[in-house]
Amino acid sequence: MMKKLAGTIATISTLGFANLAHTEEFDTAIGTLDASMNVTLATDYIWRGQSQTAGAGAIQGGLDIGHESGLYIGAWASNVDSDAFDGGSIEIDYYAGFAGDITDEISYDLQWATYTYPKGVRATDEILASIHLYGLTLGAKYAYESDSALYTYIGYGFALPADFSLDLHFGRTDTKDPLNEPTDTKEKYNDWAVTLGKTFLDIDWALAYTDTNLKGSTCADWYGKSSYCDSNVTFSASKSF
Fold first, then answer.
1. DSSP code at position 84
2. pLDDT (tens digit, 9 = 90+) per residue, 112-170?
3. Stated pTM of the model
4. I want to staple 174 with a disulfide (CB 3.0 to 4.6 A). Which of 15, 72, 74, 150 is the partner?
5. Is 89 within 8 Å of 120 (Cβ atoms)?
6. How far apart are the first and last CA of the chain?
């Protein structure tokens, strides 16, 4: 199971909030740089509808540095369930990419990332590409090391009254080989999420409903309990600096 799990982990994700506000700009000899930090407290670490912390809470944080050209680098970390990750209790992700605007309503992002689990499962490397247009996001993520897996997804964000936001997400993972033989010979599974968000007191609050169509036996083999891939309601509070 852990070989399969390591091969399909391919995202930096908790409840869908990307904390890119509150950046600080610096003029340097190579151009303008902006930097931001973020920290999140969440009732669970949800990845593609699956709990990465055995239903327990998560403390997460990240650092992003961007150049005026669109180049950026960053790092992000979270606690994870050590039993599901071969003794690794921390996930540390490193990434670099290029992002930019085509028009005021159309933007793109190209990225390489590696996801590491010190003292746990092997690192996973992936490349991703996404385009955002008029509130709609289309993306694909391809994990090529240690095992191959393709994740495609679509999302749409709505602005609601009283400065609330509503984000819808649907994704499909193609693991390229059976999920959990002999009980689960499928190679693909889906996840979906609905997230309600609001910024209040300079903190990003989010309430998310997530689910998957993974078989209970597969989830139990991967994480130790079938309910960790069932529908979940999670809550998070994020702060950017």
1. T
2. 999 999 999 999 999 999 999 999 999 999 999 888 999 999 999 999 999 999 999 99
3. 0.88
4. 150
5. yes
6. 38
